[in-house]
Amino acid sequence: MVKKKTKFACQSCGYESPKWMGKCPGCSSWNTLVEEVEQKTTRRGAFAHSSSTIVTKPSPITSIETVTEPRILTESKEFNRVLGGGIVKGSLVLIGGDPGIGKSTLLLQVSSQLAKDNKILYISGEESVKQTKLRSDRLGVTSNQLYVLSETDLEHILQSISELEPSFVVVDSIQTIYHSEVSSAPGSVSQVRECTAELMRIAKTKGIAIFIVGHVTKEGSIAGPRLLEHMVDTVLYFEGERHHTYRILRAVKNRFGSTNEMGIFEMKETGLDEVANPSEIFLEERSQGAAGSTVVASMEGTRPVLVEIQALISPTSFGNPRRMATGVDQNRISLLMAVLEKRVGLLLQNQDAYIKVAGGVKLDEPAIDLAVAISIASSFRDKPSNPGDVFIGEVGLTGEVRRVSRIEQRVQEAEKLGFNRVILPERNLGGWTVPKGIEVVGVSDIRQALQYSLGG
């Protein structure tokens, strides 16, 4: 008899315990430990064909020859940008997002584009073949090189990959696939871990680029253990509101490119269309001459994006004033308000503050500090800033405005969209060419920046 071992695994972080507990010690989540029965076997019975791999020996790093393989480009420039310049052969890419956000639509469109020159296998564990065909008809997907399979058994999936020998594989989704030698239910920690490990082995040994779709939790992170993100090469998040047409594809991990790249798509009836100039979208509904509104040039990977920051400061009716932020860190708002009160003299301790980044973008770089501070001061004084100004800079605790990176690209993007002045750190002046038709003003502290923007 094969001895069975019972354990309790957390479905959020993968923590394992010999007994059940209400609260997970690993991630402090409640009621996430689920009992799993795991058989102690070699796990080579059903996959005996996969064990015939060549055992390699260690070799000095100086003797290894490097070969730069060209990336496979899709017709979507935004998708190529987020991946770091295209798809790398043998890579394992994880795409997460809310239900109905457009993950399957994006991958089906990308599969259709790649199927013109390559053989693609699209595996759906949530839809039947006919349902996938209906969606492909709506998107206008027609290609004889795109093969569709509705299967959840990992053994059959690996057999189909071995027989078809595709160049790209899409698995939608990883939570529906199950390993026959793991006794737990599909979507559990053990199943997701084992299935991803087998897919990673196939991708690396056969040089097949595999895209897997992952569900997300209420907190917005990919469901399952965090080690799932460590196993794959690239992690992409598909963000956006289902009630709005714009979607943001963001890379949070990429072994082959930048981890801060962002792609903008627009959801239409015929599928997702890429947006070439996202700055125009984020600024198209901006109110002219409104107090509390500023524009910042933020860097998303290698791309400069102009975004509007809005602030509303109003007297509080409670003992503790409220600090609410959408798109920026709430702790940063409290820090900047403390700097304005201490260094500039604005009495903000009895004011409620509401900060929002228009367009649903999330900004986390320090270069947005100056724009946020100016918008707070503008709303507090009820005095609008110049609508043709763009603010760039990091604000320190002593009120100084510190230098930022890639200032030339930011200023060029502001000039391209018709802005006539950029207020930036004084230490960023010099060493680069200022575009014609735009004025750059260097400031050393927050008080000087307020004098230029609000007149004092």
Question: What is the fold's blueprint, element by element?
Answer:
Elements (H helix, E strand, L loop, with lengths): L3 E7 L5 E2 L15 E7 L37 H6 L9 E6 L5 H12 L5 E5 L4 H11 L6 E5 L3 H11 L3 E5 L16 H18 L2 E6 L12 H5 L2 E6 L6 E9 L7 E7 L2 E4 L3 H6 L9 E8 L2 E13 L7 E4 L3 H15 L6 E7 L11 H13 L7 E3 L2 E2 L5 E2 L4 H10 L4 E5 L13 E5 L2 H9 L2
Parallel strand pairs: 4-8, 4-9, 5-6, 5-7, 7-8, 15-16, 17-20, 20-21
Antiparallel strand pairs: 1-2, 1-3, 9-10, 10-11, 11-12, 13-14, 14-16, 18-19
Helix pairs in contact: 8-9, 9-11
Structural account:
By secondary structure, the protein is of the alpha/beta class. Helices cover 25% and strands 26% of the residues. A nine-stranded mixed sheet has the order 6-5-7-8-4-9-10-11-12, sandwiched between helices. A four-stranded mixed sheet has the order 13-14-16-15. Helix 8 (330-344) packs across helix 9 and helix 9 crosses helix 11 (446-454). Mean pLDDT is 87; it is low at 41-53.
Low-confidence stretches: 41-53
Helix content: 25-40%
C-alpha end-to-end distance: 83 Å
Strand order of the largest sheet: 6-5-7-8-4-9-10-11-12
Global outline: globular
- The CATH topology of the largest domain, please? Rossmann fold
The biggest sheet amounts to: 9 strands, mixed
Q: What Rg is obtained from the alpha carbons, in whole angstroms? A: 26 Å
Averaged pLDDT, please? Answer: 87
The secondary structure category is alpha/beta
Q: In total, how many beta strands?
A: 21
CATH C-level label of the largest domain: Alpha Beta
How many individual domains? 3
Query: Per CATH, which architecture of the largest domain?
Result: 3-Layer(aba) Sandwich
Annotation field: number of helices: 11
CATH fourth-tier homologous superfamily of the largest domain: P-loop containing nucleotide triphosphate hydrolases
SS strand fraction: 25-35%
